[in-house]
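fyi for ur records
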Amino acid sequence: MARPRTDAKILELRGAFDRNPQRRRHEPPRGAPLDPEPDPSWRAPLKRAWRELVATAPEGLYEQSDRGALRILAQLYVLMDEAKPGSPTWIRLTNAALKYHNHLGLTPKARERLLP
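which gave:
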């Protein structure tokens, strides 16, 4: 299977177009930037978890389309805080949160895939 194309922004940051400017391609614009404010209808613990999550996120990485996945991760944080550490429920929530961390680039290894 072929390797997926590297984003033009990443190639530009690497300096790939300095040597070969004819290779520059124009990609469609990305989505709207993520609104860092939580929804006013959310409960206070979820708002707190949301703000913590957005504050630790790399600048410019997330778009508005990522809001749903980030909300689920914030909700997992709240549920983990409410569960007893070491219980089967807490372990399942922690495993689910770790999967979201990897998916959203919140671990060092996952960030390598997303950032240049």
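Residues 33-114 form one domain. thats all i got for now
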